[in-house]
Amino acid sequence: MNTIGVSANRLEILQIAKAVAEEKSIDQRIVVEAMQEAIEKAAKAKYGQEHDIRAKIDATTGEQTLWRVQTVVADADLEDESKELRLSEAKRIDSELEIGSELKEELPPFDFGRVAAQTAKQVIMQKVRDAERERQYNEYKDRVGEIINGIVKRVEYGHIIVDLGRAEGIIRRNDGIPRENFQPNDRVRAYLYKVSREVKGPQIFLSRAAPDFMVKLFAQEVPEVYDGVINIRACARDPGSRAKIGVISNDSSIDPVGACVGMRGARVQAVVGELSGEKIDIIPWNYDDATFIVNALQPAEVSKVVLDEEERRVEVVVADDQFPLAIGRRGQNVRLASQLTGWQIDLVTESADSERYQREFQERTDLFMKALDADETLAQLLASEGFETVEEIAFVAPEDFIQIEGFDEDVAAELQERAREFLDRLAAENDAKRRELGVEDEVMELDSMTPAFAVKLGQEGVKTVEDVAGLVPDDITGFREPGPDGKPVWVEGILKKGEMRKDDAQMFIMKARVIAGWIEQDAIEQLIAAQQPEETSTADLTEEERALLALGDLGGADAADAALEELEFDLDALAAEGGDDEAAPKE
């Protein structure tokens, strides 16, 4: 009777382990190991916590074995008699035992008391929960970037808890589409963007507001996007209201906008329906930044674009009647266009642009009248020809003056002489002023230094080479920082915006630091090397581009042109001779 009872027990243990493993979708060995740990804990409670007790459950038969283990140590090294055994005593038990060997003493089976059984149950459940959490983390961490389907389990304070089958995900309030109202048991699709390992289990974060969610929806609805024939290069969203995506086709025969719209708008409407009616502008992406910015501001028509590549800002001029359309409701259109292109867009009306041009034109006219002792007509003529500063007039090639109608060599020479005299007087005045401000002569020896620049440094309290060395580039060029309303505002530096590039300012300061003895000359050389543009890799070039690059390496642009002319000649000669028999037209 006892043997039958034990056999039934063994089978029951294996059946329980198998059932738990299948229910939690974890390995059965993990459940068996948890049971072994529970038995070990219960045995320690019975025989003493100080003992090293180990349990083993055979995964095939379910047979349970319990040992007390002692490690053999040198007689002088004994510290814990419950876990260690002197070598001399071990030799009496088994002569083959050595230092480091383990002596196992099998313990008799015992019945779990109520407390021990409860403790064992807690140990097993904790191990199973840990294994289940690890399985969930490993399963979903590799699915980041996918669209996940689930069922709404509950809604708490605007956060949506989604049942994913084997785990739960959460759509936080700011990751949802505004005004969407989900109820328990509703089906929902969302973008999995993050899985984090937490103490209470993995946190699976989902989003319906992320731009990548829209990109993945288009990949599901548009086969050309899924196959990579059409690329969605950029996406910007105002969730639940409006979005813009930039698309480009790798096949010239396929219209990327038309393919994304679909027959009678079926494809884009499927995405719009999933996003609760969010309007989508599909924009042709372009490698030319100016063209892409113009496209991104659709449906507004753009008159002029001026790029500031250093600050990634662009000034866009639109007609007065197009200005509200370009701005959009509450600035939505220009904001989305800015996010889509990665450029800060400043909108200006044609009338405001014209007023600014007239103001700048008048300022240049007044400057030329004063500097050149010229009448208004001559000063306006110079301004209209594109001259912006007296320096340009003083040092431009005389031939450029002669090309202006009504100008000859004598007029050009006289104007340049007056311009140089004005600059000399101005330099002398600035030099006297910088001395008055206390700017040392050593500062004037720095590269790119002028008397006017020295005056501006002196006005800011920068009077020695050490003072210059202590500056940072932003002190000279200016910088942008968040304003009171959160929008970036320009903070003027020592020089006006555009008078010196940031990398030139950095080089200017570095050279001052070398003179001041703060750094070695090697730092300048390292900075110059870092600023050098990297050579274009031929790995990303097309066959045609590599061929043209090779022609350029062999003999420059002239060699490339000559090679192309020779190729055309060979083709013409081939056509004259009749060419290929199969390609020749039949009479």
UniProtKB/TrEMBL annotation:
Residues 145-209 form the S1 motif domain. Signal peptide: none annotated. Keywords: Cytoplasm, Elongation factor, Protein biosynthesis, RNA-binding, Transcription, Transcription antitermination, Transcription regulation, Transcription termination. The keyword Magnesium does not apply. InterPro entries: DNA_repair_Rad51/TF_NusA_a-hlx, KH_dom, KH_dom-like_a/b, KH_NusA_2nd, KH_sf_prok-type, NA-bd_OB-fold, NusA_N_sf, S1_domain. GO terms for cellular component: cytosol. It is found in: Cytoplasm. Gene3D superfamilies: 3.30.300.20, 5' to 3' exonuclease, C-terminal subdomain, Nucleic acid-binding proteins, NusA, N-terminal domain. GO terms for biological process: DNA-templated transcription termination; transcription antitermination. GO terms for molecular function: DNA-binding transcription factor activity; nucleotide binding; RNA binding; translation elongation factor activity. NCBIfam families: NusA (TIGR01953), nusA_Cterm_rpt (TIGR01954). Participates in both transcription termination and antitermination. Monomer. Binds directly to the core enzyme of the DNA-dependent RNA polymerase and to nascent RNA. Belongs to the NusA family. This is Transcription termination/antitermination protein NusA. It comes from Hyphomonas chukchiensis.
